[in-house]
Amino acid sequence: MLILGIETSCDETSVSIVEDGKKILTLSTFSQIDIHKNFNGVVPEVASRNHLVKIIDVLEEGLGEKCLSDMDAFAATNGPGLLGSLLVGTNFAKSLALYFNKPYIPVNHIMAHMYSPHLENEIEFPYIGLVVSGGHTILFYVKSFTDIEFLGSTIDDAIGEAFDKVAKYLNLGYPGGPVIDKLAQDDEAVFLEDFKDISLPLSTEKDRYNFSYSGLKTAIVYKLKKIEVTEKNIKSIAKTFQEIAIKHLLDKTMNAINDLKINRLVISGGVSANSFLRKSLDEIKTKNNIQVYSASLALCSDNAAMVAGRAFVDYLNNKENFNIESLRSKAFSRLSFVKKGKR
Ligand code: KG4
Ligand code: ZN
To answer: What are the tens digits of pLDDT across the range 235-251?
Structure first.
């Protein structure tokens, strides 16, 4: 089954064709990072306008040798995300589905991220799923693709948001994650002793699987008011913040792994590209005998392959739900109302 997926939930316009939820035939992504850099973050209205401008080009490239008529279904991210941006992708996919008389499959963005490691690995259930991005930090107990239990999430900022905010404070530009990651990898970077007393929040039982990043960001900013940021110590500041942030992430994740006695972890989302996180996971893998899966770097951040992949399992599990006739009747019921002259 060939599914054409569309992703427009934030600042990436992406189109991909995936066969049977596994084989990525094409993937074309236009990132708006260079546009939003000027504003130090994503501006929703600017993002949706640029999706509109770019979607045809990205679709053309994302089709590769294939034709739209070769597709068996059309899928798009339908949330969570920026509303105006989501509307571009969902309306585009719905229009294609109506025109070609094929199913339209709306896909949840978080579920799509969690699917991304499945595109390249055979992963058995159950597992602990950790989604870490600019908007989300969530732990799930995943028993199957359709039986997923929410364990905990951030109670304030997402981890990616904390990377972005600390980077903004240090004038490192947007997005902050990759810049902080790169600075922290420098040989000159050391963990700053002055920052050692920053305590990680949410140690109570009720917050065993919850995260909090807003306090950490404030604590770092407070420390920075007391020292001069130089070209030399900025690498160490990046390393120190990154290590505290990742330790908090792994502590909570290990709580879930130990409590539920599940030795399989699937990690996804933009922050799963972080090199210190990946290194720490390698150590955990060996030390605790845990299988750890993540997507390759190109599939960590927002992309349409994970949308088309997740759409395949959603479709297999509930074909009737994506019946084109229900979409057609919903789309045209209002139109016939207009034709009858009532409005
Ligand atoms: O999944 P994603 O592309 O978009 C959302 O759904 O949010 O994640 C983007 C987030 C940004 O906050 C970005 O700073 C962060 O992922 N990120 C990283 C790294 N690469 C991207 N954070 C830490 N280390 C990285 N290497
Ligand atoms: Zn995302």
So the answer is: 999 999 999 999 999 99
